[in-house]
Amino acid sequence: MNYLLPAHIIRLGVILTTIVFIQIISSTGSAFAGKRVALIIGNSNYEHIQSLKNPENDALLMAKTLGDAGFEVRQLIDGNYRDMKRELLEFGRTLRDSSIEAGLIYYAGHGVQVRGENYLIPVNALLADEDEVDLEGINVNDFLKVMNSSSSPVNIVVLDACRNNPFKGSFRSATRGLAPIDAPMGTLIAYATSPGQVAMDGSAGNSPYTAALSRAIETSPGEPIESVFKQARRDVLAETADRQVPWEVSSITGDFYFYEDGPLPDDTAGEAGSQGSLDVAYWTAIRDNPSVSELRAYLAQFPNGLFAGVAANRLKDLEDKPQVQASLAPSEAEQPINEAPVPSDPKELTRAVQVELNRLGCDAGSPDGVWGPKSGRALDTLRNEAKLQLASLSPNAAVLKKLRQLDGRICPLTCSARYVLKNNECVLKTCPAGQLLSSAGQCYTKSKPSPQSSSSGGNCFTFNGQQYCD
Fold first, then answer.
1. Residue ranges per structural domain of the chain
2. Chain segment 260-280, per-residue pLDDT in tens
3. Above 50 in pLDDT, residue 447?
4. Could you list the residue ranges that cross the membrane (predicted)?
């Protein structure tokens, strides 16, 4: 007779097997892990324009943070045009090595947007007119070209720029903040603030964004890259009272972790080091899709573990969600029911968000996949009306999933000037008899030329200021 084991027993067996396998690999080192490399640039001390206080500190902080996470770091402080180009060239050559698992470029300093193109400003830039920016600035597309020709499957660009436009007095077409860029396949582009907005330089030694990102990387070793940037966004929103909203665009298809297997325990820690290895192994086995029971088991076994805080937050999120019917098998209960797939193409994802906003009565305009001001206002209105906690007001998978959970009209119905709201419908205004309705929604009486009497007793009328009589 054949017996079928319950799904949760099978999953537990898989977890235990994975733990044993990870321990075996850990004992032989990390020979199978690819190299991670990073280029860090921080420009503070400009020669011809306003200097910035914190980019140098931000670059040093990010270099240390990534170094602690296992990246090989190249660092450039106060780079002039030639230095920045040379570092890009050398870094591009490094990325062509087939052993590279991930490449990251971080920039802090002045950045400007001109005619839809983003430029990073070297410290020796001398610009009298916006037409010179191509010659004196570094086009962000140069960074992306370096990434696009690399062998690494994961590429990351972090721009803590757009702190202000130092050339606004002489630039005609310069636009506030940086412009959005499509991410090439396998690339994540992160901005310190949303497109068209200005990021803060900070007053405490580091910019709010870099401080938050560094903290998120260090405190979330078992979290995928998307979760790390979300945590940084939440911290920046809290610190800046929602005035600065970090933003990302990504075409990464797999999972990437800043710490490959979480922080490794100290080899000299003895029994504590062994316990740390079990901690990392257990969390690695369950981190992608943990159940409530697995999270509880982890916290019971490792109450002060490396991932205890992350596990507690995930457990709270799962427990706060409406429970699926108890009659479902555990494997069924963990699966989303009738959940439509989230488009992987950024334009299709944007269009899907626009469709949902229109369905909920929030006018996002034509669902064309282009995220403009009207779509942004629609999402902001929905967030306020539904009291949603959204980490970003740009289209992403998390926003789409939240919108799909809502039903009915969320945004209040608004009527144009010629209509009034009655019984939750826009009804054309009516005017008293003899009056007409203007395009501004006002009732008026159409004036008719009245006959005038002249001294000769005929009918008179006025045209172009002259009076004519029969």
1. 7-16+260-333, 34-250, 344-438
2. 654 443 443 344 444 445 666
3. yes
4. 12-33
CA distances to 43, 125, 228, 379, 419 from 215, in Å: 21, 32, 9, 29, 52
Give the number of other Cβ atoms within 10 Å of residue 269's Cβ: 12
Whether 66 has a pLDDT exceeding 60, the answer reads yes
Give the C-alpha separation, 297 to 255, whole Å. 24
From the CB of residue 272, how many other CB atoms can be counted at a distance below 10 Å? 11
Nearest partner of 370 among 159, 197, 140, 180, judged by Cα: 180
Query: Taking Cα atoms as reference points, which of 157, 132, 144 lies closest to residue 184?
Result: 144
**190/197 Cα distance (integer angstroms):** 14
CATH class assigned to 34-250: alpha beta
Its pTM stands at: 0.51
Matching residue, tokens 């200021």: 465
Instruction: Give the span between the Cα atoms of 129 and 148, in whole angstroms.
Output: 31
Nearest Cα residue to 362 out of 378, 384, 377, 385: 378
State both tokens at 4: 């079928």
